[in-house]
């Protein structure tokens, strides 16, 4: 397979999964806004940093500060074409890649991605209103899951499919840590210190729900949601498809089907060890966000090793 085609397949799957999880990330904030009492202060600004777009936001909105309204943050995360990780940019990037490799994937995939592109163009502005936001986000998530389902059901299990799987695994691992980062960030400021734990647990419940993990959490853990238990489940569970450990294990299972690249193996084993050896109780008691940032740095190094080993060699 040409390295250019492999690169495009890898990034196509990453962009589709990024679009889905950006919608889920915004869903964390939207769900919390619905659940929290009006007396509790909710801050949207940390979510931009969680998405890795803090510098871009500061460049284009230098006077915004920390006290930005939800519609500005939602517009930036979902619709702003100047944001390289926005929902619209991700879907448009996936569509442009697919345009150049349409012979490699079924026609149904093109139609599903194009449908998402058109839907965002027509209905995107409505998502800025709280009244229509959940409906919009759910429609985007469903559309991305449809694309993933078509890829899983209709694509031959050749080397190209393995690059699709590798891109999906890395992107989901990265976005799961970012959504957990949102749960650990200062989105909620309770008036009374004694209420902090209760609202923290509410944040983690929203994180689980945004990742469609709440029901599976209850099935596996059978305890009420706490920061420690949510972190343990989303970081280290070997059976839930969006847990970081599951995604890394999936990437590890893909590598034997590809040409051997020692740098890729080395970086993957490093991030697997970091995740497996993490202590959720320690993280919950201190600063989970710092650990998520560390995992993201290692995932970025793993991506660089993949690019150097397979696409730029």
UniProtKB/TrEMBL annotation:
<dbReference type="Pfam" id="PF04168">
    <property type="entry name" value="Alpha-E"/>
</dbReference>
<dbReference type="InterPro" id="IPR007296">
    <property type="entry name" value="DUF403"/>
</dbReference>
<protein>
    <submittedName>
        <fullName>Alpha-E domain-containing protein</fullName>
    </submittedName>
</protein>
<feature type="domain" description="DUF403">
    <location>
        <begin position="1"/>
        <end position="311"/>
    </location>
</feature>
<dbReference type="InterPro" id="IPR051680">
    <property type="entry name" value="ATP-dep_Glu-Cys_Ligase-2"/>
</dbReference>
